């Protein structure tokens, strides 16, 4: 997310050198490069020009505090302006505390990712102790209902659907169904529509009036760039939607729409979707996104993700096994699964300050996880539970052939595993989790 923009801004800020004061001369080239970076990221030219003007006004002539250098001061000013440009503060989703069920309406263009986001939002709300019901109100796309059901079949969230061409009837029946099943939030997944299609735009207008939603979210594909902003403007003239959802930010989108949409449309971005998994949804925090763009990570979001997936009972079980020298490869495989629940390695690394520079090409690190899994899965069940028997070279050779991983890599992996076990037996419980994390990071370094 914002990878190219981050690289270019970082490069432009490195132009600044020395001096105890920022002048028009020593900042000119840096601001020129920042402007180019923003325009390349598909930020509107006028917005980029105004952004640079504000940064220049706030920086030129500023005395640099002794503990800072000009680059650090400019980063702070650019950060503040980015936060303002993206809406200042995050705006929470509106869920009625008095109306039961509360209604959330999802709308947007065809192919923008509405159905997938609806499922993601349902899981997000379930984790917040709500009882969501998904309503399949797309009566035009044949696979829409099936897609919704497939997305949520493993997370125990019901989907209401009805074979009828009357969308308003579906809405009425879904409210009765929600009351019967004690579901306190309804998420309506509507059909995709084009802003130039008057019939379809009238339909969403009628759905909006009939359902009287507490929250209306407009879903937009970030890969469409400036067109996304134009579409949002068209929809805002028809619907008084409450917030924007940016999807496909994990793709090769340049991110300019996400940076400027809020200020241009006058509506806050409330969620971003940055992956294919149903868990890949984030609340949009302008300050955290600004940190990521400037390469300062987003530790707060990372901690939230870790806490969300933390299983105290399972962790205690692991600690007990370690203390009794019973930690084996099946336990390690389980640890990998826990890490994956947090999100893709790319997203996790982007949240840790400086890590993207350190790791370089992140795809290799994804492969490292897969490689270790392949090694472990090439072992017999007995070998996984009894790591010490792999001192036998014939067993290691067999695993090497079965996994397609060189014997040297397998030997290196085993050496690190045995070393971690020895150290962890000697230390107190509070430090063990840190060592597991350290071990996982070393496994990714080959």
Task: Provide a descriptive summary of the structure in words.
The protein is an alpha/beta fold and 446 residues long. The protein has three domains: 3-85, SRP54, nucleotide-binding domain (Four Helix Bundle (Hemerythrin (Met), subunit A), Up-down Bundle); 102-296, Rossmann fold (3-Layer(aba) Sandwich), CATH 3.40.50; 304-443, Signal recognition particle, SRP54 subunit, M-domain (434 Repressor (Amino-terminal Domain)). It contains 21 helices and eight strands. The chain has an eight-stranded mixed beta sheet, sandwiched between helices. The two termini are 25 Å apart.
- Average pLDDT score: 78
By CATH, the topology of the largest domain is Rossmann fold
Q: Uncertain runs with pLDDT below 50, 5 residues or more?
A: 357-366, 428-433, 442-446
- Write down the Rg: 26 Å
Helix segment tally: 21
Largest sheet: 8 strands, mixed
Taking strands numbered 1, 2, ... along the chain, how are they ordered across the largest sheet? 3-2-4-1-5-6-7-8
Q: Percent range for helical residues?
A: 55-70%
């Amino acid at each position: 997310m914002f990878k190219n923009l981050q690289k270019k801004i970082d490069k432009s800020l490195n132009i600044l050198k020395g001096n105890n004061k920022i002048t028009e001369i020593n900042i000119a080239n840096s601001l020129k490069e920042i402007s180019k970076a923003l325009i390349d990221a598909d930020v509107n030219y006028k917005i980029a020009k105004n952004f640079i003007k504000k940064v220049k006004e706030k920086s030129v002539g500023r005395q640099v505090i002794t503990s800072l250098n000009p680059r650090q001061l400019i980063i702070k000013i650019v950060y503040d302006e980015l936060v303002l440009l993206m809406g200042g503060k995050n705006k929470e989703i509106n869920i009625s505390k008095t109306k039961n069920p509360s209604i959330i309406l999802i709308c947007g263009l065809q192919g923008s990712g509405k159905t997938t986001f609806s499922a993601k939002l349902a899981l997000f709300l379930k984790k917040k102790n709500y009882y969501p019901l998904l309503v399949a109100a797309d009566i035009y796309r044949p696979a829409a209902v099936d897609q919704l059901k497939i997305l949520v079949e493993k997370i125990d969230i019901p989907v209401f659907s009805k074979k009828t061409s009357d969308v308003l009837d579906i809405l009425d029946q879904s409210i009765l169904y929600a009351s019967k099943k004690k579901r306190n939030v309804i998420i309506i997944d509507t059909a995709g529509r084009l802003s130039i299609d008057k019939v379809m735009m009238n339909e969403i207008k009628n759905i909006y009036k009939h359902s009287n939603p507490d929250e209306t979210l407009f879903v937009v594909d970030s890969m469409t760039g400036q067109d996304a902003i134009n579409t949002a403007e068209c929809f805002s003239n028809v619907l008084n939607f409450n917030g924007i959802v940016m999807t496909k930010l994990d793709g090769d989108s340049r991110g300019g729409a996400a940076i400027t949409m809020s200020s241009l449309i006058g509506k806050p971005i409330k969620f971003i979707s940055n992956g294919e998994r149903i868990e890949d949804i984030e609340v949009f925090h302008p300050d955290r996104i600004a940190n990521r763009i400037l390469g300062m990570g987003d530790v707060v979001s990372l901690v939230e993700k870790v806490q969300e997936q933390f299983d105290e009972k399972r962790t205690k079980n692991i600690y007990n096994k370690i203390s009794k020298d019973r930690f084996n490869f099946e336990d390690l495989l389980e640890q990998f699964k826990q890490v994956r629940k947090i999100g893709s390695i790319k997203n996790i690394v982007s949240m840790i300050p400086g890590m993207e520079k350190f790791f370089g090409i992140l795809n290799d690190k994804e492969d490292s996880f897969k490689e270790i899994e392949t090694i472990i899965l090439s072992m017999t069940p007995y070998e996984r539970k009894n790591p010490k028997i792999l001192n036998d070279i014939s067993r290691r050779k067999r695993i090497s052939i079965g996994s397609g991983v060189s014997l040297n890599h397998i030997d290196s992996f085993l050496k690190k595993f045995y070393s971690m076990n020895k150290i962890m037996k000697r230390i107190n419980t509070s430090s063990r989790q840190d060592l597991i994390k350290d071990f996982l990071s070393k496994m990714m370094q080959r």
